Amino acid sequence: DPQEGRGTPRDRAALDRLAGHLPEIGAAAWYKELMNARKDVSHLSVREHLMLDLKAATVAGFPGLVAFSSIMGTLDGMCTQAGGPEALLATLRGFAAERGYEAVVGLFSKDDKGFKALATAAATEAQQPLCAAVEARLAGAP
């Protein structure tokens, strides 16, 4: 970022090599467009949102892996995109089952009131106690 003066000599060399291919708007404006485009996930499906920032981990006391997805969208927005709350839940469950996760935990962005949301979905009913345990642990976190 030219304004922040961040970057390495290697970054500068890469930019210099790209300079001839940059749009007419110039390097600073192109950088701004690039950073904005990097954060624009409006074209992604709900499943793609789940994969964008996903970490898998075990949960003490339970076998298998749980997918923790940080979703760049609000819970309401993802419900709308999926076709409603039940459709979102079905997508989460299907994603877990297809990828071999016991459950999926979706961590959603802040809504217009400043609230974040969380949704859990077990791959099958047998893993529902796992979701309840994750929710209880998160509720007790500082």
Helix content: 40-55%
Mean pLDDT: 90
Strand content: 15-25%
User: What Rg, in angstroms, do the CA atoms define?
Assistant: 20 Å
Give the termini distance in whole angstroms.
35 Å
Shape: elongated
SSE string, helices as H and strands as E:
HHHEEHHEEH
Can you walk me through this structure?
By secondary structure, the protein is of the alpha+beta class. It is built from six helices and four strands; from the N terminus they run αααββααββα. The chain has helices at residues 9-18, 27-39, 46-52, 75-82, 85-99, 128-139, and strands at 54-57, 66-71, 103-108, 117-122. β3 (103-108) and β4 form a beta hairpin. The two termini are 35 Å apart. The relative contact order is 0.12. The model has no long low-confidence stretch (mean pLDDT 90).
Task: Write a short abstract of this structure.
This protein has 142 residues and is α+β, with helices and mostly antiparallel strands. It has helices at residues 9-18, 27-39, 46-52, 75-82, 85-99, 128-139; strands at residues 54-57, 66-71, 103-108, 117-122.
Key features of this structure:
single chain; 142 residues; alpha+beta; four-stranded mixed beta sheet; 6 helices
Summarize the topology.
Blueprint: H1 9-18, H2 27-39, H3 46-52, E1 54-57, E2 66-71, H4 75-82, H5 85-99, E3 103-108, E4 117-122, H6 128-139
Parallel strand pairs: 2-3
Antiparallel strand pairs: 1-2, 3-4
